[in-house]
Amino acid sequence: MIHDQIVPQAIIETERFTLRPLRKSDKGLIELYASDIRVAQMTTSIPHPLPPGTTEAYITRALAADRTEDIWAIDGTQANGSEIMGVISLDRQGGNQSEVGYWIAPPFWNTGLASQAVEALVAANPLGDRTFFASVFQDNPASARVLIHAGFEYLGDAENFSVSRGKVVPTWTYSRKL
């Protein structure tokens, strides 16, 4: 491995958790939570059941020097929490814009974790973006509230394909200008 080719990824610290780059050792907990149908069905890209090798490929992609998406583990160990409480990402869209994506592990639902993670990522703005976008499935109003709480504004309705559901699902799209 040539270290000077690896693009560094910001580490963002809060009192409750650290947003840090994924590690190969995160495989077990990511696989445990991502294989939960309740998590998979609220994302566009997580299949259910989770095929062998999916988590390794996800982590490998997250660690690639030529990645277009930065993915952070929401790591609560500094506050005596779990090493993986969820993940959050910025997918570069060009023109100083990124799409925010996240999922939270079920044991941490309804704890404010998602709101805090989105707010921390937006405040840090590690890619120097001027605009953030995000979309949520319309049957997941909790995620919509997370975005609104973080200052995102509703743009409109759309649709996205959900791999785990095997169909197109209505979404709400949001943006946040900085």
Plain-language structure description:
The chain has 178 residues and is an alpha+beta fold. The chain has one domain (3-177): Aminopeptidase (3-Layer(aba) Sandwich). The chain has helices at 27-34, 37-40, 54-63, 113-124, 141-149; strands at 12-13, 18-21, 69-75, 86-92, 97-104, 131-137, 153-162, 167-177. An eight-stranded mixed sheet has the order 1-2-3-4-5-6-8-7, with helices on one face. A hairpin with a 4-residue loop joins strand 1 and strand 2 (18-21). Helix 4 packs across helix 5 (141-149). The longest helix is centred in the middle third of the chain and has 12 residues, at 113-124. The termini are far apart. Mean pLDDT is 95; it is low at 1-6.
